[in-house]
């Protein structure tokens, strides 16, 4: 990947050689800028687009002339799955897979494939396999190890919202329920701190005495204790008792909150049960797409 100053020098050399090439490159840069604008304007994708080399592959897929819309959608879905698995679930930093993502983006933008290869879905199959290979070191089967005891709140707020957004979509699809898009649009517009609810509160009140008897902060920030709530409700509930919280949860038009409202009580055992349930779902949700 070129440094910014090297890119400028390269563009200057091209400009001296061919005016038509300058126009072609300028148009391509405009296309890239428009794709990046689309990515940045979609808050749902924040958890998978903060890593620069991951964004590069998404832009390449969108700009490639070799895919129809169905193929593009398939590759973007696999890109989203593997990228969130690596940088979200396994929580790897921006130094991870730089070369692999960058080389893949370059290959996807290649324009030298013969017509028959394209017609035979050669590129779709090839690049789906390459996207799958990006995650070989971070398999879906290992999600349990990284999430079971993880702090899924501090430093993981964007990822938590993305996780539970997809979980809500899953529940709605499973029960043929209309996805509460209006509510989620408001959630995306709010800060993560305003929308992530700790069922067992971070600051324990009398109503919660005895529910969590050890490692209270650990249990408060576990995946199974977190929930996404509409704007304002999180602040309203804070550390009031579970009997009141569950009534409020049941009134929210989101299936994930209604799931919690079905529990009679909320304690360490319930947090463990829900954590394991969510992890089992995540192992399927972010497993590689099968063609």
Low-confidence runs (pLDDT<50, min 5 residues)?
Answer: none
**Roughly what fraction of the amino acids lie in strands?**
under 5%
Helix content: 55-70%
**How far apart, in Å, are the first and last alpha carbons?**
31 Å
Calculate the mean pLDDT score and round it. 89
What can be said about the biggest beta sheet?
2 strands, antiparallel
Rg is 22 Å
User: Which shape, going by the Cα principal axes?
Assistant: elongated
Number of strands: 2
Q: What would you call the quaternary organization?
A: single chain
Q: How many structural domains? A: 2
Helical segment count: 17
Order of helices and strands: HHHHHHHHHHHHEHEHHHH
Order of strands across the biggest sheet? Answer: 1-2
Indicate the structural class: mainly alpha
Give structural notes.
The protein is mostly helical and 291 residues long. It has two domains: 4-141, no CATH class; 145-285, no CATH class. It has helices at 4-17, 19-40, 46-49, 52-63, 69-89, 98-108, 115-119, 122-134, 143-147, 157-175, 181-189, 192-195, 216-220, 233-237, 242-251, 255-261, 268-285, and strands spanning 196-198, 226-228.
């Amino acid at each position: 990947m070129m440094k910014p100053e090297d890119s400028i020098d390269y563009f200057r050399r091209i400009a001296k050689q061919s005016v038509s090439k300058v126009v072609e490159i300028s148009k391509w840069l405009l296309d890239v800028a428009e794709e990046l604008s689309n990515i940045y304007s979609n808050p749902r994708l924040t958890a998978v687009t903060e890593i620069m080399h991951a964004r590069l592959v998404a832009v390449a897929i969108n700009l490639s002339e070799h895919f129809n819309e169905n193929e593009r959608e398939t590759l973007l879905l696999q890109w989203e799955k593997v990228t969130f698995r690596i940088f979200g679930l396994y929580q790897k930093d921006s130094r991870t897979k730089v070369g692999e993502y960058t080389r893949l983006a370059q290959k996807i933008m290649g324009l030298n494939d013969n017509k028959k290869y394209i017609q035979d879905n050669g590129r779709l199959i090839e690049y789906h396999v390459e996207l799958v290979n990006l995650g070989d070191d971070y398999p879906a089967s290992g999600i349990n190890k990284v999430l079971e005891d993880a702090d899924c709140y501090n430093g993981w707020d964007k990822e938590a919202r993305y996780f539970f957004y997809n979980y809500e979509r899953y529940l709605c699809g499973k029960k043929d329920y209309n996805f509460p898009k209006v509510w989620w649009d408001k959630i995306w517009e709010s800060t993560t701190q305003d929308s992530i609810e700790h069922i067992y509160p971070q600051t324990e009140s009398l109503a919660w005495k005895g529910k969590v008897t050890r490692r209270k902060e650990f249990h408060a920030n576990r995946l199974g204790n977190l929930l996404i709530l509409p704007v304002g409700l999180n602040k309203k509930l804070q550390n009031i008792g579970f009997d009141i919280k569950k009534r409020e949860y049941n009134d929210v038009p989101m299936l994930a909150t209604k799931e919690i409202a079905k529990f009679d009580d909320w304690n360490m055992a319930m947090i463990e049960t829900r954590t394991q349930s969510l992890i089992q779902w995540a192992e399927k949700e972010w497993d590689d797409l099968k063609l």
